[in-house]
Amino acid sequence: MDPSVARRTWRTLEPYHALVYFAPEPVAAYAAVGVEGRSGYFASRAAPMGAVPTEVVQATFFNFNPALVRAAMEGAWAKASPLQVLGARLEGADAALRGVLGDDLGGRPDVAEAATLARTAAEACTVEGRPLYAGHASLEWPDPPHLVLWHAISLLREHRGDGHIACLVAEGVGGCEALVLHGASGEVPPTVLQTSRAWPDEDWAAASARLASRGWLGRSGELTEEGRSVRQRIEDRTDALALAPWEALGEEGCERLRSLVRPMSKAIVASGRFGFRPEPPPA
């Protein structure tokens, strides 16, 4: 199977899942169970693994400043159990999706078909070496088709993310260094990556210096030829490790899933809920 088909499919599906991280409805749902601010983001993604120690959250949330993770997780499980947080997350995702795409979302035939395809792909993933995916895979599937679709995309996202971290670690790239490489590619402004993951200027500069010493960054912080080669190798390996679920669908199934979800993802991006203008789903 052509890995580019799988990558396009993943990118098209991403906004449907990612809405939960930016919309106000999940934030309100977390606050209702006592988890507020950035604690909601970290606790809600970590909750499928259970009431794990902060160090486990730091390990799996690879490119965030560990100090930010520690502060966000301080006392989180004392305020709300993982089950309570998971309930709030699903409630928030449901409200956010219906708020953008309409209250009839769960009864639409296109959503039901997309949910069936996405679940087929998600159930072809494996748990070995993928802790965040494994935690999410342990959860029961929701009933409404629009939430089946959302959960399936959650599984596919965490499966890919765990594999990506493995590739970065294998290349000797740390969390902050991964963001510097990403920013140097020009795909996302470095300031957005640095501030959203709360890396101090001195840590960012030190990571940049380490990459420059390896010959991956030039004098102005741009990727060198070697840096581009390394980053492409990491991305290609990530794609290869994430291929199994898409092979379960086949290229025709992937294209059908993309055609069903793309209008919804475009509507989510156009809604402004992200607070910034992300790249639109690929054509």
Automatic annotation (TrEMBL):
InterPro entries: HTH_67. This is SalK.
